């Protein structure tokens, strides 16, 4: 990948003696979490074999052994993120009845905003999607988009949008609004004069997006 440093393509040395199964699983887990944390902290520029090994507290050759190198580790992280929506966006109604398709998109806006604000790696991936282009980033973005579509399909039940509504475009605008507000909150703490620092600010912002969603499907 273009952003990876030279250490990312080092030729691996001869493999070491295989670890016991329990230690191997634990080591794989440490490498995976170290890679995920480094991506969240500094993106691909901070993502090299030596850096991952240091953070995981293991020999760098184990990254090649268990993941086939950095590309394999990125793919593993991407596969995990493919289920991000299912893991982090609850399939509940918040104690409310979803009577219309607009109610459904309002609920998605609320839950999606909470999930994005709680996950630094997803927020960084959103930034990458806007500023970089690579197969890995594209796969991560596609996986998240599919996850959102599946969430809507599972949650909507018998709810249908009004006749003639362009659900693809309208849903994309609602989702984009949430994502932009989350990123703006992290970088500047406001957007177009709307403060995004306190929980009260966020309640105001999400309420506006929710109102927009309801109006779009009135």
Labels describing this entry:
single chain; 218 residues; mainly alpha; 2 domains; two-stranded antiparallel sheet; elongated; HTH-type_TetR-like_transc_reg; AcrR family transcriptional regulator
Describe this structure in words.
By secondary structure, this protein is mainly alpha-helical. It folds into two domains: 71 residues, Arc Repressor Mutant, subunit A (Orthogonal Bundle); 133 residues. The chain contains ten helices and two strands, in the order H-H-H-H-H-H-H-H-H-E-E-H. It has a two-stranded antiparallel ribbon. Helix 1 packs across helix 2 and helix 7 crosses helix 8. The longest helix has 22 residues. It is elongated. The N and C termini lie far apart (45 Å). The N terminus is likely disordered. Keywords: DNA-binding, Transcription, Transcription regulation. This is AcrR family transcriptional regulator. It holds the Pfam family TetR_N.
How are helices and strands ordered from N to C? Answer: HHHHHHHHHEEH
Weakly predicted, low-confidence segments: 1-16
Share of helix, binned? 55-70%
The computed structural class is: mainly alpha
- The overall strand count is 2
Largest sheet: 2 strands, antiparallel
Number of domains: 2
* N-to-C span: 45 Å
Shape: elongated
Mean pLDDT: 83
The amount of beta strand, in percent, is under 5%
| Sequence of strands across the biggest β-sheet | 1-2
**Radius of gyration of CA atoms, rounded to a whole number:** 20 Å
- Tally the helices: what do you get? 10
Keywords: DNA-binding, Transcription, Transcription regulation
Protein name: AcrR family transcriptional regulator
DNA-binding region: 48-67
Pfam family, one: TetR_N
